[in-house]
Write a structure and sequence with these properties.
Layout (H helix, E strand, L loop, with lengths): L13 H25 L7 H14 L19 H20 L2
GO cellular component, one term: membrane
InterPro entries: CCB3/YggT
Organism: Candidatus Harrisonbacteria bacterium CG10_big_fil_rev_8_21_14_0_10_44_23
Length: 100
Amino acid sequence: MNGEKLIIVRHPSSARKIVLIIVDIIELLLTVRFVLKLFSANDADVAVNFIYSLTQPLVSPFHNMLPVGFAGSPPTIAWATISAMLVYGLIGYGLARILR
């Protein structure tokens, strides 16, 4: 080969791309939920209620994992949302790495 180097180019698989897109969408929705909770957004608002109802199934497994906070302490940090973001992100990006 006269000192020539062979370069192998890896293209991400379609399955990996789909996993990454799904993880990004989940993380975006959970981030919006976190910000809305942080600023104590009005639950009666249609958009806020839509985000809360859409992300509730994703967050519900993490509700009793960490304490909610002290009663009357404004604003409450949504630990369940942060936990969900970390877990889903790690699982998703781990799966995407396997699918490389």
